[in-house]
Design goal:
With 480 residues, the chain is an alpha/beta fold. It contains 13 helices and 21 strands. The structure holds NADP nicotinamide-adenine-dinucleotide phosphate.
């Protein structure tokens, strides 16, 4: 009998797991998705200009290459359509339980299985639980005094209000990360006035070869080798040029120079340029990859406000200097609860151990996949598996392959639980590699928890991760 598997989340990770189970002939699984549709981040983030800044020849499943992308960096609807296509092609739909939020999962030691509880009160047993909830699924609103007093319309970038016409309005955007950089040019083009509240400037590098010409698209469509070669070229470039820039390697100066040139070319006003110049090492925060962000900030109807925000008032935003800047629309581009992995699901392992208690000092997992005391629980895009330079789909596929390798083991020997010694070894290796990265420098980022520990990122090349997750090492686990 094949193990029964509960997959939580139907984004890129959960779908990949489901597809590989189907491909292996295993149909004893259910994908629980709290929203009304699949797609995860590519369903939630519909803000104007939403697109992936990793080229899609790479940002797509290796086993389902699509040769018809209309652009190098396709927009959100095209990525969502790709995921819908994958769910159909690989027969995942009958396994989807949409509008079904998993609220708890508890390991029942008497029966060696997980009991998965959903918001509608249903409780079902499964041999294995795979989390595909990812790192960026819960929008984070800031904690600014007076937010509830605002009398205009306000919303988070990942919950865009498409019914609210921004034409001619006075808009305030709080935040200037990758999401804001993508929608600010679109908003600036129609708003009457736009204030961008910037707390920390970002390093911005240009997108290269953004648009495919007709001939290029035909070539990719009809000569499969060209698409595969492009995928390989992008992967190698990101691994050998961009990754070293994040670990104090040979290209750090080069990439920083490229970013400075981009700023100098696109922003000629020295005052604005100074505001936009970061004061921390490149890569410490996620690098923004965009061609339209800086030009939007130079428009006459746009102001970059760097005075700290004191409070939100009914008619706008008051800065620390006491100036009230009017706004009728407030957009929070303030990111996600990225370090609260798996929250708010209550996960209970052996001996009543609660995952959020175990992770009080910061989330961690062996290979980013397995946690001591939580047998047969596997994480996709878990702690320390995010990357700042390449396609997360590559990491997810490594994890899914690893979990597929675990299934015959746990079937033969009983529930598998990673040994604390394996976890300790993993932690030591991770800490040593992490010390060399730009993420540990003096900046705040969504990669770090409140204590300053980098809980989200993988500090070595993705090829190393793929190698070490090739197959489970039996000695790292105890069984039964
Ligand atoms: P983010 O990078 O976490 O940015 C949040 C922004 O909000 C920052 O500018 C932050 O300022 C600001 N902020 C937060 N609290 C604030 C406060 N109280 N007052 C003032 N400013 C405040 O979030 P994001 O832009 O949504 O991006 C998250 C991640 O999603 C990205 O880094 C990327 O990995 C992913 N993403 C990817 C793509 C893609 O194309 N692949 C596109 C969009 C997003 P500080 O910097 O000062 O903290």
């Amino acid at each position: 009998m094949a193990p029964t598997v509960a997959i939580i989340g139907a984004g890129f990770g959960g779908l990949c797991m489901a597809i590989q189970l189907r491909r292996a002939g295993i149909t004893t699984f259910t994908v629980f998705e709290k929203a009304g549709g699949l797609g995860g981040t590519w369903r939630d983030n519909t803000y104007p200009g939403a697109a992936c800044d990793v080229p899609s020849h790479l940002y797509s499943y290796s086993f389902e290459q699509h040769r018809g992308w209309t652009r190098r960096y396709p927009a959100q609807p095209e990525l969502l359509a790709y995921l819908e296509h994958c769910a159909d092609k690989y027969g995942v739909r009958p396994h989807l339980r949409l509008n079904t939020e998993v609220t708890a999962a508890a390991f029942d030691e008497s029966a060696d299985r997980w009991l998965v509880t959903t918001a509608d009160g249903e409780r079902r047993p499964f041999d294995v639980v795979v989390s595909g909830v990812g790192q960026l699924n819960r929008p984070r609103l800031p904690d600014i005094p007076g937010m509830s007093s605002f009398q205009g319309r306000s919303f988070h970038s990942a919950r865009w209000d498409h019914g609210h016409d921004l034409a001619g309005r006075r808009v305030a955007v709080i935040g200037n990360g990758s999401s804001a950089a993508q929608f600010i040019p679109r908003v600036a083009a129609i708003a009457g006035h736009l204030d961008v509240y910037q707390r920390t400037p970002n390093w911005v590098i240009p997108k290269v070869g953004e648009v495919y010409g007709e001939r290029q698209r035909s070539a990719f469509r009809y000569v499969p080798f060209l698409q595969a070669a492009d995928r390989e070229r992008i992967f190698r470039f990101l691994e050998t040029v961009i990754f070293p820039a994040l670990v104090d390697g040979w290209s750090r100066g080069l990439v920083a120079r490229r970013a400075k040139e981009h700023l100098e070319r696109q922003v000629t006003d020295p005052v604005l340029r100074a505001k936009l110049t970061p004061g921390y090492p490149i890569g410490c925060k996620r690098i923004v990859i965009d061609n339209d962000f800086y030009p939007a900030l130079t428009r006459p109807n746009v102001d970059v406000v760097t005075d700290p925000i004191a409070r939100v008032v009914p008619g706008g935003v008051e800065t620390a200097g006491g100036t009230v800047r009017e706004a009728d629309t407030l957009i929070y581009a303030t990111g996600f609860h990225s370090t609260d992995f798996l929250a708010p699901i209550e996960i209970t392992g052996r001996d009543g151990h609660l995952l959020h208690e175990v992770w009080k000092g910061g989330a961690e997992a062996y290979l980013g996949i397995a946690v001591p005391r939580f047998p047969n629980l596997f994480l996709l895009y878990g702690p320390n598996t995010n990357i700042g330079h390449n396609s997360i789909i590559f990491m997810i596929e490594s994890q899914v392959r690893y979990i597929m390798g675990c299934l015959p083991l746990l079937r033969a020997h009983g529930p598998m639980e990673v040994r604390p010694a394996a976890m300790d070894g993993w932690r030591r290796a991770l800490d040593a590699a992490m010390a060399r990265t730009a993420w540990t420098a003096n900046c705040d980022s969504w990669y770090k928890n409140d204590a300053g520990k980098v809980t989200n990122n993988w500090p070595r090349p993705t090829t190393v991760y793929r190698r070490i997750t090739r197959a489970p090492r039996r000695e790292a686990y105890r069984f039964g």
